[in-house]
Amino acid sequence: MSQFDVVVIGAGPGGYVAAIRAAQLGFKTACIDAGVNKAGNAPALGGTCLNVGCIPSKALLQSSEHFHAAQHDFAEHGISVSGVQFDAAKMIERKDAIVTKLTGGIKFLFQKNKVESFFGYGSFKGKNGDLWQIDINSAEGVQTIETKHVIVATGSVPRPLPLVQIDNVNVLDNEGALNLTQMPAKLGVIGSGVIGLEMGSVWKRVGADVTILEAAPTFMAAADQQIAKEAFKYFTKEQGLNIELGVKIQEINNVSNGVTVTYEVNGETRTDLYDKLIIAIGRIPNTKGLQPENVGLAVDERGFVVVNENCQTNLPNVWAIGDVVRGPMLAHKASDEGVAVAERIAGQKPHLDFNTIPWVIYTDPEIAWVGKTEEQLKAEGIEYKKGTSGFGANGRALGLGKAKGTVKVLACAKTDRILGVHMIGPMVSELVAEAVAAMEFKASSEDIARIVHAHPTLSEVLHEAALAADKRALHG
User: Fold this and answer.
1) 196: annotated binding-site residue?
2) Is 332 flagged in the annotation as binding?
3) Which of 110, 120, 248, 324 fits 264 for a cystine, CB–CB 3.0-4.6 Å?
4) 372 is an annotated ligand-binding site residue
5) Block means of pLDDT (10 residues each) for the chain, length 476 residues?
6) Contact 123, 58 (CB under 8 A)
7) What is the 3-state secondary structure (H, E, C) of 395-426?
8) Which one of 3.30.1130.10, 3.90.320.10, 3.40.50.150, 3.50.50.60 gives the CATH number of domain 3-158+284-352?
9) Which CATH number fits domain 356-469: 3.30.390.30, 3.40.50.80, 3.40.50.970, 2.40.50.140?
10) 134: helix, strand or coil
């Protein structure tokens, strides 16, 4: 029976990074994963994020932005384009090629770092002295390995909607939404979270009529509401997304010519027929097949593996990270937890601050934030000051033809320490990194205000917002 120092169950952004870091630290490491490629004929590392999540969705967003720009934006640059055509199958082919390249890259990294890779579903079998026994269930049968440390990194799966069965033909989850080879004339989306907004944006830009149905009465409730309201205006009034809030879904029927959805909104009952319907109502922890009951691993009522602040479970030398534990379901959070756990196993003392984990939605304009929202600061009774600046007067943004959006800096009224930064605008997924670094180093708004920012760049808007927090904005 093979024995290891560390066995990681799951090869998503948390699992594969944890395995690589453990191997770098000198541990004999294995990683178990059951992911398969799109064709279903070969293993595919990378988990949901790489195969049917973060990476493929960004590829489709980029393709749809190019198509939209050719139709609507090139003319103002003096570029005339005629006969522009959209090929959904080609767009999907490009996306698939990117996924294949990156999944192959993880395989290479495992080989480079001497991580042994097992294909199959990992589950707890029991214990042999100080070693945990892990079963690997595959089509070839069951293989058992032993290890001193286990890192559970099994991720999450789409939250099901009891009213309808996902078939990924007419009723789609995130995987089905990423593999449409024909544009649906009329697309319905249930849920206005990251997946709903990004997939709705992709197909709206290439010509689909898109309706997003959201149960919550508030749009993007987790975001700063000044930014959320600005985003809602762009998405609805300017881009034509039909977003309904406070919706109560009553009935869904998968019929021969599409999907009918009956719902109530503002006291009115409506029934709409869509060619395709995307279910994007969130995600739940994935512990299916893990068999935690075999060893007494604690799982809470929502299905999350219970851990402390260091990602330790109730069992000795058993750890859990990423979407399967508390905290934001974000790939970069999972990766950093994976690194931290590997280093803790090695006796190091890494630290991960949940208050400085950035959030990004890759719509157009993009939305990004880190730290507290203005609503949270008010609710917690924290005295604060704020500064805002827009992209409308920024030279770089105007040159790009993307001069919409706002940057907002929130700082402590007494100490000036930055408490949160919220952005909507061009490439704010990149700009937010400066705000994260500033908060990690406990910077004040004055610190950002006194840093020289290159001109002309988009980062000048963050600089200006920091200046505005001290009522000394120079360009607004």
Assistant:
1) yes
2) yes
3) 248
4) no
5) 96 98 98 95 96 97 96 94 94 97 97 98 97 96 98 97 96 96 96 97 96 98 98 97 98 96 97 98 95 98 97 98 98 98 98 96 97 98 98 97 97 98 98 98 98 98 98 91
6) no
7) HHHHHHCCCCCEEEEEEECCCCEEEEEEEEEC
8) 3.50.50.60
9) 3.30.390.30
10) strand
